[in-house]
Amino acid sequence: MFMTYLLRELRRRMRQAIFVAAGLALGIGLVITVIAASTGVSNSQGAVLHSLYGVGTDVTVTQPPAAGSGRPPSFGFGGGAAGQAGSSFNRNVLRAPGLGTLKSSSVTTISGLADVSAASGSLTLTDLSLSGTIPSGSQQAGSGQGGPGGGGANGSISSSTFSVTGVDPAGDSLGPLSSATITSGHGITTAESNDNVAVVDSNYAASQNLKVGSAITVAGKSFTVVGIAKAAQSTSTSDVYIPLARAQSLADMTNEVNTIYVSAASSADISAVSKEISASLPKATVTTSSDLASQVTGSLSSASSLANSLGKWLAVAVMAAAFFIASILTISAVSRRVREFGTLKAMGWRSRRIIRQIMGEALVIGIVGGIAGVALGFGGAALIQSLAPPLTASTSTAPPGAAGGAAGGASRFGAGGGGGGLGRAAAAGHTVSVHLTAPVTLGSVGLAVVLAILGGLIAGSFGGWRAVRLRPAAALARVE
Amino acid sequence: MYKLTAVTKDYPKGRGTVHALRGVDLVVEDGDWLAIQGPTGHGKSTLLQILGALDRPSSGTVEFRGQDLATLRETQLTHVRATSIGFIFQTFNLIPTLSAQENVEAALVPLGVADAERRERAAQSLAELGLADRARHLPSELSGGQQQRVAIARALVKEPLVLLADEPTGNLDEGTRDEIMALLASLWEERGLTMVIVTHDTSVARLAQQTGVMKEGRLRLRANARDTTA
Question: Nearest by CB to A350, which of B49, B75, B105?
């Protein structure tokens, strides 16, 4: 009798039931879509941060460069036969691009802190190659202008650079290679810590026609490519990765690193870890993922604000409106059935049985609205994924002072001039492009179910309240 | 069955009060058939509602089989209505979305009757009133007379002690009116029901055993009735 009465009644007021269900569906669909968009934006922000940090990294530690430390590399030209005009030369050096350094022992210090689960150091360098003929009438360093080959030279000089990062094989779960995928060969193993082996970025390998087994020259030494790494989407990468110990040795930076990657024991410990590191290394710059997140600008940041603020409140407003309309219409439907309910009471139906009937009708409408809302939510999320333009996120990755420390110097050729810019700073900012996804999570579908049931219960409660207040005599006296 | 003593019922209306019943005294024995006549708005339906435990008096006592209905809680009154009292209304008051069979079954729902037994009793009740072939029809598919017969079947399916009818023929044509009244008369005789019918129709009232007239909230019984009012 319960279900028969319920379904017949809904069929009788089908249009109103569909209207209420549609309102609930719209609200629930919007909630799911907004949650999906927010999740997608969060994922994109995470990807951006991972590109700067690497997977698993919670804190990075860097050191501002000391004043005057950004001098350009010396290629060993000076007076004497090596610097005579007209003589040809070929130099290949490995230098830090104006970044401050930390002692390797700092990695050990940080690893020993209470809330730290792991720490790993890396050394980001630039491999600089110069070759050509020393021009006549070269000037000393300080008056150099322009790039390689410039500055009043009579000779021709060519240069090339590529980025090199020394990574600790023992700490490969952190750091710059952690978010990359080895697509060919293998990563650098601990057994290869002192070997001339390299992992090459897939894009660089393609441009230089390198594959596993190929030989490349780093700082004048021949390295064997043991692996090709494909970086995660929109992550910043080096061109070449070599063992940290070899990088330190070739760059004459023994026991030095310029970035330490730290993983906290849990996400709740990140703040504590940051403070502990700052206490241990007072002069270091300690950056957490939330610090970096707050620096992210660009359309990704705007999308995040849009999804979290406007989107959330819009969804709440539509949901509230849907609940209100459902309640009003349910009360209206009960009012139109006053005589019917009065008759049922006259027959001995208790108020709670009538309330159960009303609640059941409202719940069914709510559930139908919920199912339609979930479908709408999936559709909305799919629409976002297919129509959303790529979003950009920009942030400054260089530690403070790096740009100033390095830009002041010009390269020195010994007898030659010119060649500024070889000591230029690392990029002052970093922009990545991400494609927005809008994943519908099980949690949001579960929330939709809860909202649908809640909508039905709220509407049914109002209707039931109206029905309880009916006095049978008054109800029967009402002329319809 | 019933003993009403000095029953009054007042309703607030604006700043004043409507005295629907003014000191009504009434005794209805088991098996009696009482018809209550009177002009519209003089308290006939109000009296019926008091008798049917649909409303409480403002003062006085309403004894039903030894229980004062005026003192019972709402759930107790609901139980009395579910088990002992059958109602028939002028506008039939069938549930529009339920079939004739389902309307009759609705009267058995509060009694907790099992589904199969409920269906069987409802079918039998309809069959006794010649509506077996209309069991699946919705009220909108039935004539006025058929709808009223469904309502009578619904009222009687639970085998009540009392049948209360408020203008049962008010919406029916003459022929159907006579048909329904004949049906009620035969049921009263066969089942020994106690019946109280409110009607403005003298031809209907004439069929009853006793007649009372409501005027300005006061009840005056005619012939063979126990009349304690002035």
Answer: B75
